[in-house]
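Submission checklist for the structure archive. All mandatory fields must be present; incomplete records are returned to the submitter.

[x] Identifier: GTR9 protein
[x] Organism: Fregetta grallaria
[x] Residue count: 165
[x] Sequence attached
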Amino acid sequence: MWNVLLSFSGLVALIQLLFLPFFPESPPYLLLQKGDKAGCLKAMKQLWGEGNYHTEFDDMMKEKAVTKGTKIMNVLEVLKEPSVYPQLSTMLLLLLSLQLCGLSATASLQESMIPYVSLGVAISELTSIIFCSSIIDRFGRRILLWGGYLLMALILVLLETSLLL
């Protein structure tokens, strides 16, 4: 019954894919990143219902004023910034601990292949982190979520079809 369990994650991805277009963008994203005040208020009403959201809107406007002079950095600029080294070292420690947890050793692989599998997993994780963080700034989270769920659902349908054939 493992194929049914595998299909369940595809079903969840399909449900998320179907409902994602009906959700509004994040109000802070619309106001702070896009500068869309009307869209921000519309998203607040859609998310939280009718009400007076001027306090929240004013707080976001204050945050926008504070961050007005700051520049949005790309991945390479973040890596060169000394103030983010503690956060980067924490992320690196988490990635290394994931590599050393022994998941590759429990995958029924030949012992000589385990170092190569671990190295391949680490390289693919690092590549995906760099790639995803750079395209999030360019395209926005909503489009990437939609595309990711669509791709995940498609791959799981292909995998399930290949297993049945």
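[x] Structure attached
Curator remark: The two ends are 16 Å apart (CA to CA). Residues 78-164 form one domain.
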